Give the backbone structure.
Amino acid sequence: MTRISTMARVGSLVALLAAGVARAAAARDSVVVVHLENHARVPEREWLTAEDEVEAVMRPAGVTVVWAAPLLRPVTAAPRDGRVHLALSLLPAAPSGATHQEGDVLGRAAPAYGRAWVFTSRVADLSARWPVDPARVLGRVIAHELGHLLLPGEPHTSEGIMRPHVALGHTVRAGFSAAQSRRIRATLAARLVER
């Protein structure tokens, strides 16, 4: 083996390792830890289906969701472990006084606090009117609310997961657009730098 071919092989190996490190860093930067508070006592079997639905919406956007136990402090005081932490509360009903567009609001998000709420009784009521799996609808609503946390300040869209109403009649799973996916990854990277 000549000196040039050895150097070329070493150079190729270094390039491959650098690409692997960059991919690993990008993957880490797109990890979101969601701390779940299941106040609605959604049964485990339904929760696992909802969880799968959330992950199926988030994965094509380049986001890996890691589910975790509730935080006993504000999300802003979450561990500084190189990941973005969000809080999600499943509530059996909307809080009293929640009147936005009467009873059709299925969840709320507070991007400044990294927290979202989903009203499971409203999700169940809506699901009962369609031949759909309520757990899948719950997953879509959760993905939508997480989208509000990851796309702060962005309005609803006319299609995709960020529509103002859950698309129940569609057989194709709604997701984030390519532009939204890029913004989500940029938001996650910026939040990691801020910490």
Notes: The chain has one domain: 32-194. Confidence is low (pLDDT under 50) at residues 6-29. The radius of gyration is 20 Å. Strands lie at 31-38, 64-68, 84-91, 107-110, 115-119.
